[in-house]
Amino acid sequence: MGYDDDNQCFKAKNSWGKSWGEDGYFRIAYNDTQDIKFGCYACLASGVYIENQGEMITLQNTGTGNLSIHNITSDKPWLGFEPQTMDTILPGHQKQLSVFVKDWSMISEARDMAVLTVHSNDSANSVMKITIEALIEAQSLRPILSVSPPFQNGVWIENDIIHIQIQDTGGHVEFQVSNSGTSDMSWTVENKTSWIQIEQGESGVNTGIIQISCETNSKLVERIGDVVISASGALNSPQIVQIHQTFSENPDLNGNLELDIMDIVQMLKILAGMSEHSDIRIQMKDVIRVLNLVGNGVAH
C-alpha cells in the first residue's frame, strides 16, 4: 500500500480485517522482502526470425513496485529490437519487445546466437539476458543478389569484386542484376565517383540491366571507381563493381585529336598553375616526351 523511507519499510494491508496488526496494516522491512518480486520476467526467445516479421518478448512486472527499464542492448549487430527505450511498467502490467534480424547478410554461419540484455531496477534480478537464435535455414526464404559482368576482355573477379577495365577515351559498360533466390528482391545502385554516370538501372526489383558511362580520362594516371549494388536482406549483398580506366600518356589537351605545339603550351601552363586543367597531374618529363613526339611528327 505504501512505503516509508524514514523507517526503511513497506506498509502492507492484510485480508483479515482491522482487528489484526496496525488497524489492518503491517510493515515489512526493505531488507526482508525475499518473497516480494519487483522484477520483470521475460520469455526465452529462440528460433528462426524472418526479416521484418520477428518475434515478441513479453516484459512483465509481477511485483508491487514500478519497474523501470534502464536500457536494452544486443551483443550482435544483426539483431534489432523495438522499441529502443521503454516506459515504466506498472505493477501487474506488461510490455512487449519486438526482436528481429536486421541484416541476414551479417550471419555467415549455419546458426548464430545473440544475447539481448535488459537492465532494470529489479533488486533481485537487475540484469536479464535473453538468448536469441537465428538459423541459416531461413536462407531459403531470402533473395540472393547476383551481378553478371559483360563477356569481354579486361574483366576479372578478385576477392569477390568484379573488375572491369575501360579505355582512357571512356565509353559505356553494361552488367546484369538478377535474383537467384525465392523471395522478391529490391536493389539499388550507389555511385560516388564523379567521372562515372549511371545511365540506366539506378534501382529495380529482382532483375535488371545497369548501364554506366565513363568520361575521358585526361589524367596521366589510371583511375578507379566503385559502383555498389545493394539489396536489403539479400544474400551476397552488397556487390561491388570496380571500374579501372586506363590513361593516355600523350594527352590531347586542346581537343583537336592530335599532338601539336598547343598541347605542349597547355602542359607548360599546367606545370605553372595557369591552366583550367587543374585536375591533370603533369611532370616535366611528360612535357619532354610529348615535345619529342611532336618534333618527330608522331600523331596522337
TrEMBL record:
GO BP field: proteolysis
Peptidase C1A papain C-terminal domain location: 2-33
UniProt protein name: Peptidase C1A papain C-terminal domain-containing protein
GO molecular function list: cysteine-type peptidase activity
Residue ranges of every copy of the BACON domain listed in the record: 166-235
CDD domains associated with the record: BACON
One Pfam family per UniProt: Peptidase_C1
SUPFAM superfamilies per record: Cysteine proteinases
